[in-house]
Amino acid sequence: MRTFDLTPLYRSTVGFDRLFSLLDQTAGVENGVPGYPPYNIERTGENAYRITMAVAGFSDKELSIESRQNALTVKGEKKAEEGQNAEVLYRGIAGRSFERRFQLADHVEVRGASLENGLLHVDLVREIPEAMKPRQIAIANANEAGKQIEQQAA
């Protein structure tokens, strides 16, 4: 019997929490291992999230973040370094360009981003409009409802 591992789908959706059945782009995921750069998605509050990406070697000028129609795109473009005379014997720190996309749930907004110690932090908040929030409906007693109708009719 064949089983399917949907874990890569869960990693790239933010704010869905109970809607993990949504199929997400799996481009860039090979053999169940996500591509470059590695990242974490954290829940920092009831409606607050944080995406942390390891972008060692990139400056804030080489990174760009764009939010458009329920999609968050983080791009890193490494400029070729000129004037380096050193011969690299082993390159373990990746310095290649990348583009990482995240699907966002409805009403999830990017609040800010910061770069510290080689980690890019993107803070997200889900704000549901008042009109879409659940509301309590009072249930009237049948005897009281009948009295009110009689009083209004008289």
Concise description?
The chain has helices at 7-11, 142-153, and strands spanning 13-14, 39-43, 48-54, 63-68, 71-76, 98-104, 108-116, 119-126.
What does this structure look like?
This protein is mainly beta and 154 residues long. 11% of the residues lie in helices and 32% in strands. The chain contains two helices and eight strands. The protein has helices spanning 7-11, 142-153; strands at residues 13-14, 39-43, 48-54, 63-68, 71-76, 98-104, 108-116, 119-126. The protein has a four-stranded mixed beta sheet with strand order 1-6-5-4. Strand 2 and strand 3 form a beta hairpin. The longest helix is centred in the C-terminal third of the chain and has 12 residues, at 142-153. The relative contact order is 0.19.
List keywords for this structure.
4-stranded antiparallel β-sheet, single chain, mainly beta, 2 helices, 154 residues
- SSE run: HEEEEEEEEH
Strand content: 25-35%
Q: How would a crystallographer describe the biggest sheet?
A: 4 strands, mixed
Structure class = mainly beta
Q: Estimate the mean pLDDT confidence.
A: 77
